[in-house]
Fold Beta-xylanase.
Amino acid sequence: MHGPLTVLAALLPFTSAQLNTYAKKAGLKYFGAATDSPGQRERAGLEASYNQYDAILRDGNEFGSTTPTNGQKWLFTEPEQGVFNFTEGDIVTSIAQEHGLIQRCHALVWHSQLAPWVDNATADWTPETLSAVIVEHVANVMEHYRGKCYAWDVVNEALDEDGSYRDSVFYRVLGEDFIKLAFRTAAKVEPGVKLYYNDYNIEKPSPKSEGVVRIVRMLQEDGIKIDGVGLQGHFVASRPPTLDEQIATINAYGALGVEVAYTELDVRQTTPVNETSLEWQANAYRDAVGACVQAEACIGVTIWDFYDPFSWVPYTFPGEGAALLWFEDFSKHPAYDAVIEAMRNATVSPCKRRQQRRRAQMAARSAELQ
Ligand code: XIL
């Protein structure tokens, strides 16, 4: 017999539901949200401080992981050759440290938000000089964050849509060796951190997802460590990849022996939003998180910030927005409940359950030791 309270609880939306709590129950390591440093917000014409925002980000039941959306990129960390600056990145790292959040670190070698001195037509790089630049950058940045990252996005967005390599200063000068060099260097600097290849539009089977498989194999064949593939997951509400497509792709990467994570999930829609587009968005979030929970290789989900006013989407895709899980007034999107539902309904595979048990045992053991 169900008492009136049970019935009421079943009818209520998951008002007090919390993302990270459900993610862990479903066998994931974390549900995370990326965040920018307040200085960056100010530069974008936003206020620097939002108490409600800070409280949600620091609520361990809601988020178990974070990523700096900008502060660790080359433009900020090595704005001039040999001059390193970790001010912006450190702000997010200290939030993670103070609140016991896992940190996914992002991104070491990327053609975008690159310091102008690297991507400069007059620079005249040779394979030797550019290799030295990559080694110096990767080594210094990783050294600074040593022990503070669960994972590093070592190479970001090296592929074009057709699966060939994207034209970048790195590829022009070094060919695919730049990828090998970046990973080889990263593994030397901090052997214990997970090294990821990260990209977008690689969440469903396509020439680009085959390109990812090629990169992973290339590194493995050369004996170079790669631990993970990051699916950025920048989706459009009206045409997201399906649940099955995402599961198939995660399994294909997983078959290579690497782990997988959604690293920058957001689902944009035309603004102003309407009921239909919000429903599409909820379905897209449900399928992405559902795929992660169901496919064994997937270990966690990070959304690219959680609060709409801080999303990159309206700046990059004019006319689109409302891509995250909290509206401007801090009410939650319907997609929030859809995400919880995907995790609640998870039929967790025996393998994930084993991992979950192992993690719980380890946590209990370390609690005993303290
Ligand atoms: C975005 C940031 O969110 C913006 O603030 C910035 O202006 C541009 O970059 N893929 C990535 C992220 O790997 O680093 C990008 O982040 C979004 C696309």
Remarks:
- The beta strands are 30-35, 65-68, 102-110, 151-156, 194-199, 228-231, 234-236, 259-270, 298-303, 320-321.
- The chain has one domain: 3-369.
- Residues 3-369 form a domain with the TIM Barrel fold (CATH 3.20.20.80).
- The CA atoms of residues 126 and 173 lie 7 Å apart.
